[in-house]
TrEMBL record:
InterPro entries: DUF3052. This is DUF3052 domain-containing protein. It comes from the Bacteria. Pfam families: DUF3052 (PF11253). It comes from Kibdelosporangium persicum.
Amino acid sequence: MVAAGDAGKAGVAEKLGIEPGIVVQEIGWDEDVDDDVRAAIEERSGSDLLDEDADEVVDVILLWWREDDGDLADTLLDVRSPLADTGVIWVLTPKTGRDGHVEPSEIAEAVSTAGMAQTSNISVGSDWTATRLVSPKSANTRR
């Protein structure tokens, strides 16, 4: 039987759209990340998270982002090159009131500048919020 806490952790991976067999790359890891979220993703996908230096095509990019990490739009443009056409980027930011919190308006502006579309926001763990980004459909049809 699965403990209630474990079910919640596994549920995070499902909410992030993680399916068995998909490839997930993690960018922006630091000591403040939620290891339970990372473990749930690895367990559900069936493989380890790829690090920032991986050069294979990925289905999901997990981008841990804090207020002082630099220019989000530039980072989004840099990190999305290995992303599959139907892939998604999850930008994980500290929740309101936490160190490193990023205002939603800053995320929206960066997403627009990077030519991506923001589709949803979810809570992941007690300290992090995740924002789902995709390439606009019109961009995919022009490739």
